[in-house]
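Limitations

Structures in this collection are predictions, not experimental determinations, and the ligand pose is part of the prediction. Treat each record accordingly. The example that follows, with iron/sulfur cluster as the small molecule, is included so readers can see exactly what is and is not provided: the inputs are given verbatim, and the output is the predicted complex.
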Amino acid sequence: MNRPRLMTGARLSFDSVRDEHVLLIPEGAVKLNPTAADVLGLCDGTRSLEQICTELSARYKGADVTDDVNGLLDALAQRGLVNDAATS
Amino acid sequence: MQPLPRPSSLVAELTYQCPLHCPYCSNPLDIGAATYQSQLSTDDWARTFHQAHALGVLQLALTGGEPLLRKDIVELCAAAREASLYSSLITAGTLFTAERAEALKQAGLDHVQISIQSPEPAENDRIAGNRSFDKKLAAAALAKEFDFPLTLNCVLHRQNLDRIEQMLELTLELGAQRLELANTQYTGWAVPNQDALMPTWEQVQRGEAAVQRFRERVGPAVQVLWVLPDYYEELPKPCMGGWGQTTIVVAPNGDALPCQAASTIPGLEFGNVREQSLEWIWAESDAFTRFRGTDWMQEPCASCPIGHQEHDWGGCRCQAMRLTGDPAATDPVCQFSNHHDRVVSARDPAHQSDEFIYRHLKRPVHS
Ligand code: SF4
Ligand code: SF4
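Predicted complex:
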């Protein structure tokens, strides 16, 4: 994955009634923990994976987030929720 | 007492008018009746959207009939976005013009779903009772052009199930990211058309295999939703995710229903969004509370041999009503139901005719 982005039509939102982050998609909603919501907030198809990790790491006091970010994006890509702006 | 669940989706039936005449339309058989003549105003809908959001609703389906027949459809999309709902336009596609598409995009419409009656043009037009195939393809192209996520929906039955591979290919050609292959549910207009729609088991099996091959070949780029026909199952589905558990349907006149077919259950009292808040309707109205949870269940559900009460919620109330005359009975799709033979015998392909009774506003039909 080079420049991850949300699939067409996916929209990040905060569900104030249930007090949780969600990714809204056609006919569905995927619950997100706050970290996942942070990651996806950066997946705009212009930032590279590396940039995303650097920005997040800065937010989380220098922690190495690379493995977590990769794991999350792979899982979401398998469900078609995230794809690579560099390959299309 | 279980805690009160939170709804996650609102189905807004904006109007029962539609240029098409699908013989399996889920709208009630009496869509031409006086009770549906007076439609909700723009403000009624906008208020309903906000109330739905406050209750926990995330997804809004703008449907009908044909939702594009509402002159205020663009305003309604804007109201949905303002209420923070994710909106889907469920359309037959024939009225989706470039001008419309652009205005809807700007108003914040999130997603477009277009129905295809068959991937074969002449057959599509015969099933729809209207020459609409070319317009549907044009609509799909427009949805892509305006960068909407696109879902195609094809209701399956005996007369189009053998074209499933063609439908899958069409989905690829049109660049849709989702395909809903929904085997006909026998509610609404599908009831008087059951003999013309019921598939054979061989058709269903071939269809399922084709879907499986497609999924392996195409991967996650296209999501294919395949819904088995009830009549070939031995256990019911959790109809609507359970009665009063996830979904609110609002009819064009403001009546609020737990499912699109709930008006076929005699004696159910519906709240109306003109007079009551959605919060009261969800928590208190007779229609939503009557079959919510498990307290209302009879045998065999009450002591279900496999403990499925909160898994399938006893199946579909409208189907129980239609096949047993008692809306509180176990759904006869269930193998434990005393009436399961009525489902089994409906599979028998002996009494089949291909003639359709088309959905129509003027001619009332009695099932
Ligand atoms: S099922 Fe057919 S007739 Fe019914 S609303 Fe949809 S397009 Fe119109
Ligand atoms: S008996 Fe009732 S609860 Fe049990 S599987 Fe059948 S329908 Fe579901």
